[in-house]
Structure formats: C-alpha cells, structure tokens
Write a structure and sequence with these properties.
- This protein is α/β, with parallel strands linked by helices.
- It contains 14 helices and 11 strands.
- It has an 8-stranded parallel beta barrel, surrounded by 6 helices. The chain has a 3-stranded antiparallel β-sheet with strand order 7-11-10, with no helix packed on it.
- The radius of gyration is 20 Å and the shape is globular.
- The protein binds flavin mononucleotide.
- The site of flavin mononucleotide has 26 residues, from strand 3 and strand 9.
Amino acid sequence: MKTAATEMFGLDIPVFAFSHCRDVVVETSRSGGMGVLGCTYHSPDQLRRELDWIERHVEGRPYGIDVLLPAAYARIETPRITLGDIPREQSEYLRHYLDQAGIPRLPEGQADELIMTEVSRLNMTREQAAALVDVALEYPIRLIVNALGAPPVEMVERLHKAGVKVGGMVGKVEHARRHVAAGVDILVAQGMEAGGHTGDITSMILWPQVVDAVAPVPVLAAGGVGNGRQMAAALALGAEGVWCGSIWLGTRESDLTSDMKQRLFEAESENAIQSKARTGKKCRLLDSKLIQAWNQKDAPDTLPLPLQTATVLESYLRVERARAHEWLSCPVGQVVGQMQHEMTVKQVIFELLSEFADASERMAGIVEG
Ligand SMILES: Cc1cc2nc3c(=O)[nH]c(=O)nc-3n(C[C@H](O)[C@H](O)[C@H](O)COP(=O)(O)O)c2cc1C
C-alpha cells in the first residue's frame, strides 16, 4: 500500500499501533506497519530497557514513541510525585468505598511501597517527558508523538535535527493548526469514540475537517478503527493511515491480565464511557464499580492530572489483587464492542487488511455499477 504515511516512514501498510506494550509495538512494526510505544508509565530507566528490547527484536523496522506533554497539569513541588502529594480526602474516600465492598486492603507494611512503585512510573510533567525524549534519542526511533498540547518549538527543532519525525495528537481543528504552527510532520486526528483522553468531536466529523485544515500535512485517523471497513472509511475521508489503540488490548501480546481481557471481550460499545475518574481529565474507559465511585452522592471532586492518577492507583492495585471482576477498568474506546476473543497482533492486522480489500472492491463495484 502507498500513502503519504507509508512513504514518510518506509512502511508496507499505513497501520500505526499505539500501545504501552513493547510486544505489540514490535509485532506491528514487523508486520509492515509502525508500532508506537506509549511512555507515560515508563521512567527513563524503564524506557531504556524497553527500547533495548525493541531494538533487539524489531529487525530494523521503524517504530516510535508517544509522550504526554499536558498543556495543563497540577504543579508538583517535588521532581516526582510522592505519597505526600496524594490528597487525603480523595484517597480516604476511595479506601472506605472499597472497604465497604469487602475488597481487601493491600498487605500491611507493603502498601506504601506498592503504591510508590506505581506512582514512580507516572511521567506526566514537561520535565519528565523531556527526560524520556532524551532517552529515546539514544535509539534510532523514527517518530515521537506528543499528546495533550502542541509541543514546544525547541523540542520539534531538536527532534528534526536528530532526523526524527514529530507527530501531534489532536481532537479538534484549532489544536491541529497549533501543532502545525509548531512544526509537526504528521497529525493524529482522534475522534471522541477513542480510548484514552478524548475531545468531543466524533471521528466521522473530525477526520475530514483536520485533513482539510492542515493539508498537505498528512493525517492519521484515530478513534473507532478496529476493522477493515472502518479503515476504508478513514482513508476515504482523506486520512493517510490509521492509528489504533484499543484493538491491541485484547491481543495475545497485550500485557493486560486475562481477567481484564475477559472484561473487555464481554463489554458492549456503550460500556466505554467518558469519565474523569482515572486521570482527572476526560478519558474514555471501561465503566466499572470503581469508576462509579466518583458518581456517588458523597464523592469528592476528582483531582487535576496527574494527582487523580496517583490517587486511584491504590484502588487499582486492590481490585486487581482481589480479582474483583466488576471493578476492573482500563482506558478503551467504543470499538470494545467489536472485540470478542483473543487474537495475535498479526491476526488483527491480517483481518484489518483483508476486510479493507473487500471494502475497497465493494466501493469500486458501486462506482462501476
Ligand atoms: C489503554 C489506552 C491508553 C492510551 N494512552 C494514551 C497515551 O498515553 N497517549 C496518547 O497519545 N494516546 C493514548 N491513548 C489513545 C491512543 O493513542 C489512540 O489515539 C486511541 O486508542 C485510538 O482510538 P481507539 O481506541 O478507538 O483505537 C490510549 C488509548 C488506550 C486504549
């Protein structure tokens, strides 16, 4: 296949996989697409380990990373978030809410350490994202995508000097223009049906708007692409490729627990709701009893990013250890309703492409007919 995106990176197929899981990244790149590693939960040392591994396995194929550079976040006085930064009101509320449901607390004496291990993985400030970029530049990465705001121009210039393309994740036209003004090479237009942080505009409306607004800068379509007909629609609307996140969560290579995968396979599209419960910013995720904690009458307000994420980590650990099925949640888009059983990354890509070919033939037939 040949689009501006395949040409830019030397790919065989215009399929980009966003994943926090290195195996998904490698399998996608080895299949002719491009894996992009989400780094929000990697410290610089962890990222180095992941990139070492990817380098050993990716067989020279192109790959990238995705960092979160939020335009707005709560300033933390310390270089990294500590337990002392986590507000008591919200953490006590959650602790009590889970106690009432009989979900065991974390083991006495280990709780703080377990929580801190998770908290130390959060990388949501500009300084932390910059440290990740430094590590990434030690490797022959081809693309760095930045979410939650246009990247600083100096960062774009630095990456260009290093031969790395810069991508921007956007949910509306105004943001797309801002990214282009900052010098990005490629945009990811993400509709509101996507998993993770989203805006309010659906993919069907957003994709062509962004394509028109930033031409000739290529646009990848994200949000609601889980099969080949959706991929065909994305390219028909002017996108140069697709950027998928949710669909990889249910693959064999995904590092989600089997309990979490099972929950995803059982879910319908309407169970992927938008909530501030996980990060303090509107994020589409699987509804669960844990998410509903924040809808109760006595619930405190959610906190700004990254404090909300830090605050809820303890509950996520408790729920996971208790294997409390109905409490499990993770970011996922509305395509969750299409995910029914575990497949390998290669199978997902094969199905995507064969259905894309069928859809293209059908369209050609309509025109000829
Ligand atoms: C579990 C999960 C975590 C995500 N985390 C991030 C992130 O850290 N940074 C980012 O730019 N996008 C993130 N996203 C959004 C994806 O990059 C992608 O745009 C989105 O998943 C596409 O829509 P889809 O979920 O319908 O495939 C996340 C998505 C999921 C499902």
